[in-house]
Specification:
Elements (H helix, E strand, L loop, with lengths): L4 E5 L8 H9 L12 H10 L4 H4 L3 E7 L9 H9 L5 E6 L3
Parallel strand pairs: 1-2, 2-3
């Protein structure tokens, strides 16, 4: 049986800050109003599950972003966020900026 994947494509979004990231993933990931909007809350959502029914109903979460803004080389917040994705159950795909 194939893994059920939730694919969130943020390549059309301007993501310069973590707040921009939270704004972009909130709706497609079904984040509740009370979501903490911090790295610990995101880690709990994608690893521990139990926070978002949308994320929980899929085996794999794949998020596509462009390597600019928050995901530019050397951005500490972006690097910290990137490290939360495990590459198996939670995949962050960073596409080269054009």
């Amino acid at each position: 049986m194939a893994d059920r994947k939730l694919v969130v494509d943020l390549r059309g979004h301007v993501i310069d800050t973590l707040s921009d990231f939270w704004d972009a993933v909130a709706e497609p990931c079904g984040l509740p109003e009370w979501f903490g909007r911090n790295l610990d809350a995101w880690s709990d959502t994608i690893h521990g599950r139990g926070i978002s029914d949308v994320v929980d109903s899929h085996d794999v979460l794949v998020v596509h972003v462009v390597q600019r803004g928050l995901f530019s080389e050397g951005r500490r917040d972006g690097q910290a966020l990137t490290r939360i994705f495990d590459g198996e159950q939670n995949v962050l795909v960073i596409h080269a900026a054009r």
